[in-house]
Design a protein that fits this description.
Belongs to the ABC transporter superfamily. One of its GO terms (molecular function) is ATP hydrolysis activity. By secondary structure, the protein is α/β, with parallel strands linked by helices. Helices cover about 35% and strands about 25% of the residues. The protein has one domain: 3-Layer(aba) Sandwich (Rossmann fold). Helix 1 runs antiparallel to helix 5 and helix 8 crosses helix 9. The protein binds adenosine-5'-diphosphate and magnesium ion.
């Protein structure tokens, strides 16, 4: 695993140089939508920071505003109030250094796995008008390395309809990793997977992050997942989402879900959410 991550780093000239992770500052962000002429407040004065290379989970009830917040961080929308910054600069639009993986992998059905993972490099190819040569070879090496990172080397020529749900989500992850992101934004990425695949992919994600050290912002409504993966869990209220707690989790990786420390933290977080068990 480490060797592959190094290979990915060595060929990083294709995209931005390996950054070691973006710093994200969300400052006093409030957001509302217009719904049938009335204002629908979705985020209320939300502030938090993601340190470079940190793994932060955003945990909150369904419909509280988590995806809305991620869209602001990804630059897909701008907040009604407050600011979102990456490395000190206001986020004004999407950027290849911030990659979003959604719950549905949305692969192009007519492209192979390799073709889907190669979308980022292909866009660069068009932008910088490469004509084969060293850059093209580097791009192909990066695609190979990304496929190896997610364990799909043998399926490079398969089409999406030939993949399981877990494999499709791995393709989406490889498609993100090939761009050498400074920030990986994950919106309930394992939400639709069966529980065994989910457990496996949680472990894989933790290892990928440890090797590569990009920053991660993971949205989940699963307390266990948040605690298993993140160094810090930010807990949100019901809509309009406001931060109700921040729980630091310094348990070493690899983590085990039955670790007594995680079990205690789980109880603490559930209590914050008003779910005393
Ligand atoms: N584009 C939109 N227009 C109007 N309302 C929206 C829009 N996007 C989301 N919402 C509403 O905002 C609230 C929060 O949605 P969302 O951020 O997707 O929640 P979560 O991801 O936490 O489940 C929901 O009530 C949803 O209906
Ligand atoms: Mg959502």
């Amino acid at each position: 695993m480490v060797a592959v991550a190094e290979a990915l780093n060595r060929s990083a000239a294709v995209a931005a140089p390996l950054s070691g992770g973006a710093r994200i500052d969300v400052r006093h962000v409030s957001h509302q939508f217009a719904l049938r002429g009335a204002a629908l407040p979705v985020l209320h004065d939300v502030s938090f920071t993601v340190e470079p290379g940190e793994f932060v989970a955003l945990l909150g009830p369904s419909g509280c505003g988590k995806s809305t917040l991620l869209r602001l961080v990804a630059g897909l929308d701008t907040p009604t109030q407050g600011s979102v910054q990456a490395d000190g600069a206001a986020i004004t639009g999407p950027d290849p250094s911030r990659v979003v993986v959604f719950q549905d992998p949305t692969l192009y059905p007519w492209r192979t796995v390799r073709g889907n993972v190669g979308i980022g490099p292909q866009a660069q190819r068009a932008r910088f008008a490469w004509r084969g040569g060293a850059q093209e070879e580097q791009a192909q090496r990066r695609i190979d390395a990304a496929l190896e990172l997610v364990g799909l080397s043998d399926f490079a020529e398969a089409f999406p309809h030939q993949l399981s749900g877990g494999m499709a989500q791995r393709v989406a992850l490889a498609r993100a990793l090939v761009n050498d992101p400074a920030l990986l934004v994950l919106d309930e990425p394992f939400g639709k997977l069966d529980s065994l695949t989910r457990i496996r992919m949680q472990g894989e994600l933790a290892r990928l992050w440890q090797d590569a050290r990009f920053s991660v912002l993971l949205v989940t409504h699963d307390v266990e997942e948040a605690l298993l993966l993140a160094a810090r869990v930010i807990v949100f209220s019901e809509r309009p989402a406001r931060v109700i707690a921040e729980v630091r989790n310094d348990a070493p990786y690899p983590r085990h879900r039955d670790d007594p420390k995680l079990v205690a933290l789980r109880r603490e977080v559930l209590a914050q959410l008003g779910l005393d068990t």
